[in-house]
Amino acid sequence: MLDLENLRKSDFYYDLPEELIAQTPVEPRNHSRMMVIERKTGGISHDRFFNLCNYLRKGDTLVVNDSRVLPARIFGERESNGSFIEFLLLEQKEQNVWEILCRPGKKAKPGTRFSFGGGKLSAEILEVLEDGNRIARFYCEGSLFAMLDEIGQMPLPPYITKKLEDKERYQTVYSRETGSAAAPTAGLHFTLEQMEELRQMGVNIASVTLHVGLGTFRPVKEDKVTEHKMHSEFYVLPKETADIINKTKAEGGRVIAVGTTSCRTLESVAAKLGKIAPDEGSTDIFIYPGYKFRAIDGLITNFHLPESTLIMLVSAFAGYELTMEAYKKAVEERYRFFSFGDCMLII
Q: Which residues of 303-338 are buried (b: 16+ CB within 10 A; e: fewer)?
């Protein structure tokens, strides 16, 4: 029996063979496998994502995260001597001023200038922060975002070692609001055609925005789960989405979050306001077993890293024993794991 008062990081460990970590996305997008978990019965079955419609009903609402990943990894050189530098843009502070990670860091002292994309983009280091990150000002003709689209690479998770040939495969087909350092990967399984089919059968699709930070890959270091401090991420829940969710609930439909980011957005607003209503702000909500869900009735999510905050969230929603059994089965059945891997539908 899980001790909710003394949750340990090791409670969420499972053994994952390295060859099950997906290095490339499935083609077409919606041909990934889908494990279906029924919370009431404890049933676990296996299907394909293109059959999602078989598990949804008219009047249900899917809530997707429309955040778009910034191609924020850029490679360049120091203007004074041509030595190599790599930047990863983390957070915009003001117009063309960003907090960045860079390596090798010793080259990036305040006042040092760097050039990227054959001189199309340049940057000056303004400040070194306590944690080693830098503040940099960028210079280019036109929009910095357009320039990053041209010369930047996707900040793929560290466990993906193969080069991504098509940058759009690390974006959802409905991504709109640029600002994430990582993709909301549960949404990578959808095609535009499948979304239209779902609308035709009476399923609502509503959007929130949560810009995913690199903290999503940060391991839990504290052994005691409750001592872990979550990173903060910016979210927006628009009025249109709040109205759809409230109508869905009132009419007996189910609200199904597509991904842990959509889940965290909805649960943050419900916890803050006591209801679903238009809102925006920052959230560092940490969901683990014992949490009482206020907003969602279902969850579509990928398979997450052992001992991560994301598997803790799934365990809170599906139940700890059922979640760990599902992960054990996923390994036995050779599911593909993590960002480009298969998914589970929990209802």
A: bbbebbbbbbbbbbbbbbebbbebbeebeeeebbbb
Tell me: do 64 and 87 sit in the same domain: no
pTM beyond 0.85: yes
User: pLDDT tens, position by position, for the chain (347 residues)?
Assistant: 799 989 999 999 999 999 999 999 999 999 999 999 999 999 999 999 999 999 999 999 999 999 999 999 999 999 999 999 999 998 889 999 999 999 998 889 999 999 999 999 999 999 999 989 999 999 999 999 999 999 999 999 989 999 898 999 999 999 999 999 899 999 999 999 999 999 999 999 999 999 998 777 678 999 999 999 998 899 999 999 999 999 999 999 999 999 999 999 999 999 999 999 999 999 999 999 999 999 999 999 999 999 999 999 999 999 999 999 999 999 999 999 999 999 999 99
What is the DSSP-derived secondary structure letter of residue 222? Answer: -
Q: In terms of residue numbers, what domain contains 113?
A: 73-151
Other C-beta atoms lying within 10 Å of the C-beta of residue 24: 13
Considering its fold, how many domains does the chain have in total? 2
Phi, psi of 334 (to 5 degrees): 60, 40
Q: Do 193 and 82 belong to one domain?
A: no
Domain final residue, candidates 151, 178, 213: 151
* Domain-embedded: residue 156: no
- Any domain includes 113: yes
- Does 28 sit behind a cis peptide bond, omega within 30 degrees of 0 on the bond before it? yes
Is 160 within a domain?
no
- Provide the 8-state DSSP code for 228: P
- d(C-alpha 199, C-alpha 205), whole Å: 7
